[in-house]
UniProtKB/TrEMBL annotation:
It comes from Oopsacas minuta. Keywords: 4Fe-4S, ATP-binding, DNA damage, DNA repair, Helicase, Hydrolase, Iron, Iron-sulfur, Isomerase, Metal-binding, Nucleotide-binding, Nucleus, Signal. It catalyses: ATP + H2O = ADP + phosphate + H(+). Residues 121-228, 241-347 form the DM13 domain. This is DNA 5'-3' helicase. One of its GO terms (molecular function) is ATP binding. Coiled coil: none annotated. It comes from the Eukaryota. InterPro entries: At5g54830-like, ATP-dep_Helicase_C, DinG/Rad3-like, DM13_domain, DOMON_domain, P-loop_NTPase, RAD3-like_helicase_DEAD, Rad3/Chl1-like. Its EC number is 5.6.2.3. The keyword Hydrolase applies. Pfam families: At5g54830, DEAD_2, DM13, DOMON, Helicase_C_2. NCBIfam families: rad3 (TIGR00604).
Length: 1289
């Protein structure tokens, strides 16, 4: 058996076409593409030169030359040499006069070309223009009956167009489809592609008179060329079948029909191979021994082992020096197992005779071979250094490159690693939709799109627009076959261009590479659009090239035939702009990966884009006639072009107008707002400059997120300077186009659409359907929360809830009975009710099954609690998970949608005979509806997959008796007895982090917290997880002489008062507090408010004062009202307050005794005589033994131990809560600028500096400390007398 080495395998690879493109000239005035058609003939395509040109190969007696007769201008011509070109590589192109080298081309030694070929001409329609821009130069190899097309072009807009061989000189549709480059599919968008035309497998070889591109849908030729007839005598039987050695059935299912299409071209029709065998190749040999053979490259030119072939139609080309006359067999062979899976024999006895000669030689050349570097799975670089002319040649192979996209490669800006800027030196290759090929020198001066800055260009710019720069890349050519595009270009090792970096043969160099989109530049060329966010860029994986290495790629690059489906764009909510909502804030941000800018607009972005009202490129709808104000934060330093982005309104869908003077672009672009133009200096002025504010990524680009909201939550917003935003106004009128754009004046493609409309119905519809109806609204809101001193507690409460066993039982019964009340309900509603009923039963069963774990807290009170993650495990134990919650949430939405509709239909029936609302929807009770709403809000937080809020919750069960006494019948008589109590179990979800609920306001523009008693303010930032950059504590509106504030450590009996739990247990302290209040009531007219720390203290003092006569004496001085305890005594409280105010009006005066955090300490206005004094006894710390207080203190301490040092400790939070309640009570007696009153802080602990500092600013400034009560009383008496005298005057 003959096994070929890797070197031999590489020697038999078939490269190129049956004619060979030497390359493209683009130097000075000489341009065009040069082909080697046969051994003696050059073909010049689209060639121009201002003088005659000489083509020369070899030297001395082995020299071959050909010369054009004169100057040429975009001509096609055949140019015969005086000998064989194949052995005189390289072929030089020189001027005829002066013999100056223009460029040179190598001729590879492993190409196959015909001995002679005939130029048939161009595609035409009987002299008329072709359809769909069909173009190409057609050649005919009569000896081998092959057709070739140089530079095939078709715009791809036609349906069902195919390469077609017709039996008539002018196509009529009588013929067969032909393949191009082995493909028998339709001809789509083909751009400057050199093409082999192949016969259909199984077709005959004679009788075709024309070649065309034929549209089967309309039976129309887009253009054709006639084929000369030939009398050559090559013959071969047309059909064979794979056979096995011996009589065994085919191994691995191998089968095919084999056709000889030409002397060295073989077609396999309906080839099947299961692909499961190891190391299997196409295999051919010239002897009868099937084990003695060589590998034949695959239909794609690859030497990789074969995979599955399922009824494939393919064309194979035998390697150099082999044809069907000297090759005996072709088959599929497993080298590892030394087994043939099937073969067919080509010997003269099977009919193959008179094989024509094929001109093929191996060129002996000194040119070095290419080195190869895989850049990615779909990008490959080949390079070589030629020391004879100090030139470096590059070949870039890339997959699925579209027209107006670029591929770039070059030297890193750093010699020690990978860096793009400043001054990375790259070559950017691209081809346009019209087939123009270009490889241009670029200097990456900064990481920015190329733009004018201070009168000169800066950014990723072509050297040709930079001072002293030039394009030093020559011999550029491109080939596009299927999805693979190959660029070839050459540059000298060293240039005189200051924008070029030298190549250093002998020393490895770091490279950078990228690919992406281009834009139409001011010079009408297309420039690089993207920078830092290009589709691929080798920054994370440094790559070096080494000119002295012998590196090769594992195999030729093969592109996937199908391109990935385009990314689905995010749903971005529109902005609906009218006179009530006419402000737009604009800043810069990342484009959001494949689902962001490109997917939304269909255009390649630059890596950054506009964010309007904190939303990535929203489509804007503006009500015609509305004046819109844009506040722009895109940078204000023109010298820093990468961070200078003036916003303007235009009719251009790309923008970037500042690259030229405005006057030069008025023909194609109209500026509607945002820019001004100075006619004298012919310069553009940017009206919308402000600080550079940017949304930047912290967790990768948008490809990692399903929605923009998820992506937005990972962005960080930052602003450069404190200067104000640049602003301008724009009012679209009746003359304004329906569609315009907001763009950047200095860079292309940062913005999106503005729809000018006569009503906003479409915008509101889009907004609602997107599910973001509140997002744009919130982003414009300035939220002002008045009386915000309780915002932390309110936020915690709004993310907490309680569910009782009775509620769950009621809900389950209602879910089960609801179908009977809704006989016409759909299956979706019935299914929802069934699932919710099952969930209620599961939750109730679990709740009742936890009794064994409950611990006794007090007499007949039991409880048990779980921290967040432990609670999640408990819920998962009976099937309550995040996914189940999502499903149940859909059931609730389905149910509520029907119930709301039902409520509307039965609105007049919603009340019972007592005129009381019996049910919110008559189907589910208010209790059930409310429970469902709150339960799913809380569980959605706890069961989030990322556990973001899980540890912010404590879940507990409490068990308390609801009745335990009754009567039973015994021995025919009734006796009182104690029966087993009826228990109520409650499931408590306690949120310990107010930021869980407060985060809902994070998308607003601004949040302002106001209150007369925000002090102390230390907790707001840490508790609400919101940075309040501005803090302001105003002076009180009243004058100093209008208020008296005294801090008392003793009472009239000089007994020290500390209103702590232990201090208040002492009768002496209780009595002394009573004496203080008596003294105040004697000295202060009208109304007096007294605030105690808690209801338990109030009950304790009331009982003691009754026993020692204090209550009696107080009642003699004033009408005394005690604040009722509990929330169910609204009528009694109202009566007490009326009696309090009435007694003051009648001149007797009143004393109202209540508690901090009670009904009277917050929210009630006690103006003027209604409260001339406020007496605060002690410091109202929350109940230390309260379960939630203990949990909150523990939560804060745990968070601090886990590293959240910005959070207050448990004790610090506890103190803040006390003084915020105290400060709220202090302000009850000063209600307007002319009011006056006295405040007494009765507790020796106020002498503690930290406690004093926790008082409101206005109280601290006016407070006096009195170590003896007599001094304080004397001062208070003088203050009251002075205010009373002024009132009488």
């Amino acid at each position: 058996m003959k096994v070929l080495s890797l070197v031999l395998l590489l020697q038999i690879i078939y490269e190129g076409h049956a004619f060979y493109r030497l390359g493209t000239v683009g130097v000075g005035t000489t341009s065009g593409t040069i082909y080697l058609i046969d051994a003696n003939t050059l073909f010049l395509k689209g060639f121009s030169a201002n003088e005659a040109v000489v083509f020369r190969g070899g030297s001395g007696g082995n020299q071959v030359t050909a010369t054009t007769n004169s100057a040429l201008s975009n001509v096609n011509m055949m140019l015969d040499g005086d000998d064989d070109w194949l052995n005189v590589s390289p072929i030089e192109v020189r001027t005829a006069s002066g013999d100056q080298l223009i460029t040179s081309f190598d001729v590879p030694g492993n190409i196959q070309i015909p001995c002679s070929a005939e130029y048939l001409g161009k595609f035409s329609r009987n002299g008329a223009s072709t359809y769909h821009s069909l173009a190409g130069d057609v050649f005919y190899d009569a000896l081998n009956r092959r057709l070739f097309v140089a530079g095939l072009y078709l715009d791809g807009n036609a349906p069902a167009a195919y390469m077609w061989l017709d039996t008539n000189a002018i196509p009529t549709g009588s013929g067969v489809r032909a393949g191009y480059n082995g493909r028998y599919a339709r001809v789509d968008d083909v751009n400057n592609q050199d093409t082999n035309v192949t016969l259909p497998i199984g077709g005959v070889h004679t009788g075709y008179r024309s070649l065309s591109v034929w549209c089967e849908a309309v039976s129309q030729s887009f253009g054709h060329i006639s084929i000369p007839q030939s009398s050559d005598s090559f013959e071969c039987s047309t059909t064979y079948g794979f056979v096995m050695l011996g009589n065994s059935p085919p191994t691995h299912g191998v089968s095919a029909k084999v056709y000889v299409l030409g002397p060295n071209t073989i077609g396999l029709k309906n080839l099947y191979f299961d692909g499961s065998a190891p190391a299997t190749w196409y295999w051919a040999g010239s002897t009868s021994n099937v084990h003695d053979g060589f590998i034949v490259a695959s239909e794609k030119g690859s030497l990789a082992a074969l995979g599955t072939r399922n009824n494939a139609n393919i064309v194979l080309t035998l390697p150099t020096d082999f044809d069907v006359c000297n090759t005996n067999f072709l088959g599929l062979y497993c080298v590892q197992a030394s087994t043939s899976f099937g073969q067919v024999y080509f010997s003269t006895e099977y009919g193959c005779t008179n094989c024509p000669p094929i001109c093929k030689t191996v060129t002996q050349t000194t040119a070095p071979s290419f080195q190869c570097q895989d850049l990615s799975s779909t990008d490959q670089l080949e390079y070589r250094y030629d020391p004879t002319n100090s030139m470096v040649t590059f070949r870039f192979h890339t997959c699925n490159l579209e027209a107006n996209q670029y591929f770039a490669f070059g030297l890193s800006a750093s010699s020690s690693g990978v860096a793009m800027a400043p001054n990375g030196d790259v070559v950017v290759c691209q081809y346009s939709t019209t087939g123009v090929v270009d490889c241009s020198d670029y200097d990456l001066t900064i990481r920015s799109q190329c733009a004018l800055s201070g009168g000169s260009y800066n950014g990723a710019c072509p050297d040709t627009v930079l001072t002293g720069g030039a394009n030093n890349y020559i011999n550029t050519q491109v080939e596009s076959i299927n999805a693979l595009t190959t660029f070839t270009t050459t540059r000298a090792v060293t240039t005189t261009d200051s924008h070029d970096r030298d190549f250093t043969p002998g020393t490895p160099q770091y490279i950078i590479w990228a690919r992406g989109g281009t834009f139409s530049s001011p010079t009408s060329e297309r420039w690089v659009l993207r920078h830092a966010t290009s589709e691929r860029i080798s920054v994370s994986s440094p790559i070096q090239i080494d000119y002295d290495s012998t590196s090769t790629c594992p195999q030729p690059l093969e592109c996937p035939m199908s391109t990935p489906a385009p990314a689905t764009p995010w749903e971005i909510p529109p902005l609906c702009i009218n006179s009530m909502n006419s402000e737009i804030q604009a800043s810069i941000g990342n484009t959001g990966g494949s689902q962001g800018y490109k997917a939304i607009t269909g255009k390649d972005g630059w890596g950054i884009a506009w964010y309007l009202n904190d939303i990535l490129i929203p489509e804007v709808y503006v009500l015609r006639g509305t004046t819109v104000t844009f506040h722009v934060n895109g940078g204000n330093d023109p010298a820093d072009s990468a961070r200078y982005h003036p916003l303007y309104i235009t009719n251009s869908n790309e923008g970037g107008i500042s690259a030229l003077a405005l006057a030069e672009l008025t023909i194609t672009e109209t500026v509607l707002a945002g820019l001004g133009y100075n006619e004298v200096s012919e310069t553009v002025s940017d009206l919308s400059v402000g600080p550079y504010c940017e949304w930047t990524e912290t967790q990768g680009n948008g490809d990692n997120f399903n929605t923009f909201e998820e992506y937005k939550n990972t962005l960080v917003y930052s602003c450069g300077s404190s200067v104000t935003s640049g602003s301008f106004e724009w009012t679209p009128d009746s003359n304004t186009s329906d569609l315009v754009y907001y763009q950047c004046a200095t860079h292309r493609l940062l913005g999106w659409k503005i729809n000018v409309v006569d009503d906003l119905e479409e915008c509101h519809t889009l907004l609602n359907s997107s599910g973001h109806s509140l997002l744009p609204f919130f982003s414009l809101l300035v939220v002002v929360l008045d009386e915000a001193h309780n915002i932390e507690n309110i936020s915690r409460d709004s993310a907490s809830t309680q569910i009782t066993q009775s509620q769950l039982d009621l809900a389950r019964n209602e879910f089960e009975s609801a179908p009977h009340k809704m006989p016409n309900a759909g299956e979706d509603v019935k299914s929802a009710l069934k699932h919710l009923s099952a969930m209620s039963l599961s939750l109730m069963s679990w709740l009742c099954g936890q009794d064994q774990f409950l611990e006794q807290e007090s007499f007949e009170n039991y409880s048990h609690s779980w921290l967040g993650l432990d609670a999640v495990k408990e819920f998962e134990s009976f099937g309550l998970t995040h996914n189940i919650m999502q499903l149940q949430n859909k059931h609730i939405e389905c149910l509520f949608e029907v119930l709301f509709q039902k409520k509307d239909e039965d609105e007049d029936k919603i009340f019972d005979e007592n005129n009381e609302e019996t049910s919110r929807f008559k189907i589910l009770s208010n209790s059930t509806v409310t429970m469902l709403e709150w339960l799913f809000v809380v569980l959605s937080n706890i069961l989030r997959p990322d556990n973001k809020y899980t540890e912010d919750y404590i879940v507990s069960i409490t068990k308390k008796p609801i009745s335990k006494h009754g009567y039973v019948e015994k021995n025919k008589g009734w006796i009182s007895t104690t029966k087993a109590p009826s228990w109520e179990r409650t499931l408590n979800f306690c949120c310990l982090n107010p930021a869980v609920a407060f985060e809902a306001l994070s998308t607003t523009h601004s949040i302002i917290l106001t209150s007369g008693t925000l002090t102390p303010m230390t907790s707001f930032v840490s508790e609400l997880n919101c940075e309040f950059t501005q803090k302001f504590s105003a002076n009180h509106i009243i004058k100093p002489e209008q208020v008296w504030i005294g801090m008392l450590s003793t009472g009239p009996q000089e007994v020290r008062i500390e209103a702590t739990y232990r201090g208040l247990e002492q009768f002496s302290t209780q009595d002394e507090i009573g004496h203080v209040i008596e003294s105040v009531c004697e000295s202060v007219p009208d109304g007096v408010l007294c605030f105690l720390p808690s209801y338990s203290v109030m009950d304790k003092l009331r009982e003691r004062w009754k026993s020692i006569g204090v209550v009696k004496r107080l009642c003699e001085l004033k009408h005394v009202v005690w604040e009722p305890r509990g929330s169910g005594k609204a009528d009694a409280f109202k009566e007490d307050m009326n009696s309090y105010f009435e007694s003051i009006t009648k001149g007797r005066g009143s004393l109202l005794i209540g508690v901090c955090r009670g009904k009277i300490s917050e929210g009630i206005d006690f103006a003027d005589a209604q409260a001339r004094a406020v007496v605060c006894i002690g410091i109202p710390f929350p109940n230390f033994k309260d379960h939630q207080v203990q949990q909150k203190r523990g939560y804060n301490d745990r968070r601090r131990r886990d590293g959240c040092t910005s959070l207050l400790s448990g004790s610090q939070w506890y103190e803040v809560e006390a003084f915020r309640a105290l400060n709220q009570a202090l302000g009850r007696c000063i209600r307007h600028k002319n009011d006056w009153g006295a405040i007494l802080l009765v507790d020796a602990r106020f002498s503690n500096q930290s406690y004093y500092n926790s008082l409101s600013k206005w109280a601290r400034e006016k407070a006096q400390s009195f170590p003896r009560f007599s001094v304080a009383h004397e001062s208070l008496t003088r203050f009251i007398a002075s205010r009373t005298e002024k009132r009488q005057i």
